Amino acid sequence: MKKILLSLIIFSLVFSFGGISFAQEQTIEKIPSPDQIKNFEMIRKDGNALFGIRKVAPAIQANVVSSNSSLEKISHPEEISLFDKIVKKGKALWGIRKNIVPKPAYITPAAAPCVKTAIDKKDTALKTIITSHSQEVVTAIDARNICQKAAIDKTTAKEQLEANKTCINVFQKAVKDINIATNKEKNEAQKTYKTDLKACSALQTVGTSTSTKQSTEEIKIEDGGNEVNSIL
Fold first, then answer.
1. Is the pLDDT higher at 229 or at 86?
2. Full-prediction pTM beyond 0.85?
3. Domain coordinates of the chain in residue numbers?
4. From the centroid of its chain, how far is CA 49?
């Protein structure tokens, strides 16, 4: 019996020292907020703060972190479904774009005129939006030009500084309002385009050896619009 008890004591000591050695190899961190407690183990309290060892991330998370994927700003809400690992930064949403290869839909002769009209309508709207945006920004720049030159006519450095600050504030607000309105118009144009394509999908017909029937495939055409979004 004594031999058994002695063996158990030795095993317990070895296990304890092994656990201490393992813990020392990991970094003890201060837990920044209560909602982060779930990400730590071996938690202890020191004063009014909690400390612990951060849990090892699952293999899946490790693969995501080690991949070459990069966060991309989501330009409008309709694109959320195209992204994974979505996070909020400020007022914008960012995520990693899914590697989705869209299945090409054959556009039948019955639907082709409708699709071409939808494309023309979308691109005409987009060009109008871009032209309007550019002209409004030019107008804002002209107004700032006049304002800043008037600021120079002030008789003291303080007056010039304050007057110029007003010019900048007015200009920045004008450009911000222009961009908000432009983004709203672009989103509306894209919504209309998708609605038009959906209507065209209803015209899709496919021929068989015995009859002609309606296709169940919805028409979706990628146009690389993100490149346009980046310049506005």
1. 86
2. no
3. 1-56, 112-229
4. 34
